[in-house]
Amino acid sequence: MSSVSTKPYLIRAIHEWCSDHDFTPYLVVAVRGEMQVPMEYVKNGEIVLNISYNATRNLNLGNDYVSFSARFNGVSRDIMIPVGAVVSIFSRENGEGMGFEYEAPPEEAPVANATLQTTSTSHEATKHDDDDDEPPRPPAGRSHLRVVK
């Protein structure tokens, strides 16, 4: 019997806790390879996303992917993130939350990414032909959270 990850359940629980207490839940995502996120907001190989119900539309905190639509600089974008790429979820107001280890996608990831790209309704390409290099990995050890204003 294979082991089922607790990570998606913990993400949903902390999101619910934030929402119940009128806190703003933020996700920190490690961006590796092709992902359906706005690449212009990626810094140091990570992107920080507000996943509150007020900031998102059609939020789905699934077992394999976190997906939603959100506006970035006034433009609606469809976001799809593998749960394994989530490195933390926390409350903006008090910084409480939980950090996770980055989980590399399974061998089938290139097929899944190809499917994601063809089903995307976003008009902007998330893959850049000149950006084939993988961003540097953050140093191992203590996790780090940044205050986002």
TrEMBL record:
Residue ranges of the region described as Disordered: 113-149
Family annotation (InterPro entries): SspB, SspB-like_sf
PANTHER family linked: STRINGENT STARVATION PROTEIN B
Polar residues bias (residue ranges): 114-123
Pfam family of the protein (one): SspB
Lineage: Bacteria, Pseudomonadati, Pseudomonadota, Betaproteobacteria, Neisseriales
Database matches in SUPFAM superfamilies: SspB-like (SSF101738)
Protein name: Stringent starvation protein B
